[in-house]
From TrEMBL:
Residues 204-313 form the Lactate/malate dehydrogenase C-terminal domain. This is L-lactate dehydrogenase A. Keywords: NAD, Oxidoreductase. It comes from Sesamum angolense. Pathway: Fermentation; pyruvate fermentation to lactate; (S)-lactate from pyruvate: step 1/1. Belongs to the LDH/MDH superfamily. Residues 38-177 form the Lactate/malate dehydrogenase N-terminal domain. GO terms for molecular function: L-lactate dehydrogenase (NAD+) activity. GO terms for biological process: lactate metabolic process. InterPro entries: L-lactate/malate_DH, Lactate/malate_DH_C, Lactate/malate_DH_N, Lactate_DH/Glyco_Ohase_4_C, NAD(P)-bd_dom_sf. The keyword Cell cycle does not apply. Transmembrane segments: none annotated.
Amino acid sequence: MHKSSSAASFGPGGLDLSKAFFTPISGGAPSSATKRPTKITVVGVGNVGMAIAQTILTQDLADELALIDAKEDKLRGEMLDLQHAAAFLPRTKIHASIDYAITANSDLCIVTAGARQNPGESRLNLLQRNVALFKHIVPPLAKYSPDCIIMVVSNPVDVLTYVAWRLSGFPANRVIGSGTNLDSSRFRFLIADHLDVNAQDVQRQQIAYEKETLENIHKEVVQSAYEVIRLKGYTSWAIGYSVASLARTLLRDQRRIHPVSVLAKGFYDIDGGEVFLSLPAQLGRNGVLGVANVHLTDEETQQLRNSAKTILEVQSQLGV
Ligand SMILES: NC(=O)c1ccc[n+]([C@@H]2O[C@H](COP(=O)([O-])OP(=O)(O)OC[C@H]3O[C@@H](n4cnc5c(N)ncnc54)[C@H](O)[C@@H]3O)[C@@H](O)[C@H]2O)c1
């Protein structure tokens, strides 16, 4: 496949056009003090992967973007389509290939590749197919970018984050799932809409709401993704912004708290095994820096433990 680069080549003579436009100044060559470029890889250029890629570009989060997929034509088409917007965007070098060598030295690798559920197929079978995909995806990512942070977006996100953690051999602080970051945003939108305020001002604070209003908003959050999928076939824009906000916090060491899938063992009385759950985690350049201690009711603690138990049962059938 034609490996991309954002740079065009000019004819067989190899004419260096840059010299025709600029006269280099002495000492202008890159020095060791020059900042290393920030590089993000996105695996899977479907609806979700492309929404993430385009948000990363418009928000100027990377100097280099590497796109990986199994479909060569789709991959090249998406790469060219993004490159053609270069005149309207901050400068980012875009690569695309089925060869993981282009992902080398990434700071952040975002995995969105996933199999689609066949009619009548069980969720466990779909999960097993996704585990098989991850066996092709995660080891080469870890090989080419041994110091990167891996962010899993593919569903079921908690279990696949565990799978990515096992397959990568990385410490748990460098493997994160997008978790309920998007669901939180949906929750904040619905509360903001109800109160007619800005969603960015909806924070973690105890405000007295009518029980019924809160229950309705909760129900709506749970149904949100299904509703969008029913109407347009998939979700993309909100998950794109959600993951870009995580990328910003991680790569710019913002140390913000996000509800994301992290290794939950030892937090909130979850001790039974290695399971990834969405918890309020502080994120920075080293990945997960800590987990916030939010007060939970006994019922909420029990719900978390039940989720952990269910996920562990599923994981025991995966052979990873
Ligand atoms: N975590 C969340 O909040 C959230 C939100 C939305 C979607 N998702 C999940 O994201 C995933 C992707 O959704 P989508 O709508 O983009 O699906 P999609 O079918 O449009 O895209 C999936 C892409 O993965 C690629 N792919 C398949 N096998 C591959 C392999 N071995 N290597 C590289 N690429 C491969 C496909 O070619 C395709 O381009 C799904 O699992 C979906 O459930 C998660």
